[in-house]
Structures are given as C-alpha cells and as structure tokens.
Amino acid sequence: MPLILEDAQEMGPGLGWQPEHVVVSLDQGVREEAPRIWCGKGVTNQGWHLTEDEARRLAGTLTAAANLSVGEPADQLQLPFGIVAA
User: Fold this and answer.
1) Superkingdom of the source (predicted)?
2) Range of 10's domain?
C-alpha cells in the first residue's frame, strides 16, 4: 500500500509503472558497530540512514503531525537544533 500520494513513476525501460512508496529497513554493515535504520524513496538509493535516536525523534514528529491532521492534540514537536514548535 503506497504511503504517499504521488503519481506512479516509471521504474525503467520495460519495467512498467509503480506508485511511489517509502522503504524503511534495519541494516548493519561489517564496519558499523551498531545497526542503522534506512529510510528511503522506493527501491532507489535516495534516502538517509538514521540512528536509533533520530528514528525515535522522526517517529514522534510523524505521530504528532498525524494527530494534528485529524484535529487531535499533539505533543510539542522537537525540531533540529533545539527549536521547539507548538
């Protein structure tokens, strides 16, 4: 099930069309001492790695945004660099 409302994208010559979606996975390479969370666009290499703390902060921000979108109260959002949004 697509998580974002964008038009479908062509995957490549002869591969057809696919709706955009978000991929989240946990990986740990041989040189990393702790696993990292990958969050990216579909099956591309467009995305970023998150630490456990960053993933928890993003989850909290997404939950607060979802709550606000349906008129529910949201906790304060902690933005980067210590900025707090109501």
Assistant:
1) Bacteria
2) 1-50
Question: How far lies 13's CA from each of 2, 21, 39, 43, 51, in Å?
Answer: 22, 20, 26, 15, 35
Please indicate, yes or no, whether residues 27 and 14 belong to a single structural domain of this protein.
Answer: yes
pLDDT digits (tens, 9 = 90+) for 38-76: 998 877 788 999 988 889 888 888 888 888 888 877 666
> Do 58 and 37 sit in the same domain of this protein?
no
Do 19 and 44 share a domain, yes or no?
Answer: yes
What distance in Å separates the CA atoms of residue 67 and residue 72, rounded to the nearest whole number? 5
Statement to judge: residues 59 and 37 lie in one domain: no
For residues 33-47, b (16+ Cβ closer than 10 Å) or e, as one string? eeebbeebebeeeee
The pLDDT assigned to 1 comes to 43
Which residue has 């900025």 as its token pair?
83
